[in-house]
Amino acid sequence: MPVTDVVPDMDALTLAIVADFAAPVDRVWQVYADARQLEKVFGPPTYPATFVDHDLTPGSRSTYYMTSPEGEKFAGVWDIRTVDETTQFTFEDAFADEYFVVDPDMPVSRNCYAFAAHDGGTRATYTSTYASAEALQQVLDMGVVEGASSAINQIDSLLDAG
């Protein structure tokens, strides 16, 4: 299992997940840069993702939805802020309605996905920062740790497939 550490920090308002992959940094980067690869591993296995728009360019917006086993769709948006190709990108992640309008009643997170060479492979660090402890607790209660961990743990099989 790639996920090696999960650290929710209520004082810092962050959730950090660390994962190690037996693949070079540029290969792991490709998973996030290519919408077709990303949708194979973003979201828990029982809630597959579909990226409608995806471009890792500062100022762009990625739109996606995850589909439940019952067919219900849960939408979200990534507003891409910065991109340092192959090493990290930052974005805001928000819940949205079916038209990709941000839901103002749900938490928004500021995220940094960073990738670095480590032990012959890649160490990925996923850090999400929330506006308040209540917002962080809300997503923790919704199962973000389990969902994100199960999603990240799918990446190995995609990397093995080439």
UniProtKB/TrEMBL annotation:
Residue stretches making up the Activator of Hsp90 ATPase homologue 1/2-like C-terminal domain: 23-159
Gene3D superfamilies, alphabetized: 3.30.530.20
InterPro entries per UniProt: ASHA1/2-like_C, START-like_dom_sf
Origin: domain of life: Bacteria
Similarity remark: Belongs to the AHA1 family.
Protein name: SRPBCC domain-containing protein
Origin species: Aquipuribacter hungaricus
